[in-house]
Amino acid sequence: MTGILLKFRVSILALVLGSALLVSPLATNAEAVGLFGYRATPYDGLKPFPKWRQVLKTYKEEPGDCQSGKYNRCAHQKWLALIEDWRELPKQEQLNRVNQHMNLFRYILDPVNWGVRDYWEIPKEFFARFGDCEDYAIVKYFTLRALGWSAEDMKIVVLQDMNLGIAHAILVVEFDGKNLVLDNQIGQVVDAKRIKHYRPIYSVNEIGWWRHKEP
Q: What are the structural domain ranges in the chain?
């Protein structure tokens, strides 16, 4: 992560907090979900997040062929084959496999990869061009969705890494009474309670979004 992403975090936070005044919350009182020790207030709709809405609109688009075109069908087909291989595994093992496999892909910043400050990729773009932290979270999210996991049990969380002083994004999955973290910076799936240096800012899934703040 670089100062560029830190500026992205600040601009996104300002957008979200400003938009929160215009969006009706799902619940009157803050919902204390306890992620990293912070409260989460749920909101309906995804209007403040055009990049995420675009991902949801286009993530099923087919890639090009294996030899030419903008996207690599071979990598996409391999992804679909892995999903079938993992489908009958126990749930915990699915989480482990998804996290470990996606973390093998190369990390690359959006300004280098796309020539823009911030870009949210769909899976075919990730497999063709790799990506940065939110792109790992996105491809893990849709891989688990394809494996039958519920959107209600998953959130892409944008946060501040207090140790490194940078913005970051992860996938959090609620499973077996725990918030489990799938993170491109961590090799294993871990319980969120074990992580002390993350300050969540907001999180999203297909249903809505949450603003996180200290209790």
A: 3-61+71-213
